[in-house]
Please model this.
Amino acid sequence: MSSSQPPAQSDKGVALVTGAARGIGRAIAIRLAEDGFDVAVNDLPGTPELDEVIKAIESKGRRAVAAPGDVSEESVVTDMIQRTVSTLGSLDVMVANAGAVILETFLETSVEAFDKQMAVNARSVMLCYKHAAKQMISQGRGGRIVGASSMAGKQATEVLFAYSATKFAVRGMTQSAALALGSHGITVNAYAPGGVETRLLDAFDNFLEPLAGPRAGRNGLLAITAVGRIGEPEEIAHLVSYLASKEAGFITGQTISINGGSYFD
Ligand code: NAD
Model:
């Protein structure tokens, strides 16, 4: 936690973003601070970039706290939420963004890699959805829950076997949780990005280009967009900003494609 927090508590409420040290999560955390939320940020322990994100949030005049840990573990998620509430006062917006990609073709998929991929991308979302929902229900004033799916959660590809499974799982959990939480005034939605300029996309490139040449990876994704470019993390943050707003109260259970026209669903 930073020592130089501004004193005033946000009347907008408190957001918690996982995987916020870089990439899409970082952009979401900073955008929600611009929107007026105090923001708790999570990433894996020993991720120094988290301090810089805290400073960026505070520079917007908002309070921030770090709650590092591996969100595929239940005790980490409950502690993270507890730390958020005890430091910032409540939990009003949960963004279960943390994720990783383990690239293996279908026939090479090992049980260990599959289980690891499910834990990081799907179990973490289940835990964040469930424990955030319990906190929001106890507060009694609704809330917003948002998760990270992917274009690969709508259309599978051969090299994203386990990753695709996790991102389809996020869609299912998003629908189910939305049904369970609607009567509490809590919406649950997910974003399904196409290629976005982050380190995750670099991993995709490094795996695919040796296998399938320079037209694979980032260039392959670029080729299938209608807009002719890869996305920026801030563009995903704009969508999350809207989903987190009061105005988005009639949107729930949706996994919203944001992919430059790479795939229509
Ligand atoms: P990134 O690799 O740049 O950032 C992901 C962050 O999550 C990292 O800081 C990482 O340390 C953190 N993280 C990973 N496992 C974690 C764990 N168990 N606990 C806590 N933190 C953890 O990736 P990104 O592109 O910003 O991806 C963000 C989300 O968006 C992911 O869920 C990803 O699957 C999804 N996504 C990304 C793209 C893309 O093209 N970049 C496309 C579709 C979906």
Observations:
- The CA atoms of residues 173 and 265 lie 18 Å apart.
